[in-house]
Write a structure and sequence with these properties.
Layout: H1 3-10, E1 16-17, H2 18-25, H3 29-42, E2 45-50, E3 53-54, H4 62-65, E4 70-73, H5 75-83
Antiparallel strand pairs: 1-4, 2-3, 2-4
Length: 85
């Protein structure tokens, strides 16, 4: 797990919008985008269109809409994050 992945997962114990992540984690947009993509690919993060609408990974238009989504650590992501302490 990279430091960026760890820092992002640290903020995703609760559902958070992209705007919160980019402001709180203090990383540039390209790093945030690539980190979220890696976390999604690993299955460590879930993606939501709205706070109540989870998206299937096939329905995620990440390239065009990543900044509009909300994110939440998955069970696998939480386990990876906690085993990294």
């Amino acid at each position: 797990m990279t430091d960026f992945e760890f820092d992002v997962l640290d903020e995703l114990y609760f559902l958070q919008p992209y705007s919160y992540l980019i402001e709180t984690v203090k990383m540039d947009e390209e790093d945030m985008k690539s980190t979220l993509r890696e976390l999604l690919d690993k299955g460590w993060v879930k993606c939501y269109k709205s706070p109540s609408e989870e998206l299937d990974i096939e329905d995620v238009d990440f390239e065009n809409s990543f900044a509009k989504y909300h994110y939440l650590a998955s069970k696998a992501g939480l386990l990876a994050h906690n085993s990294n302490f």
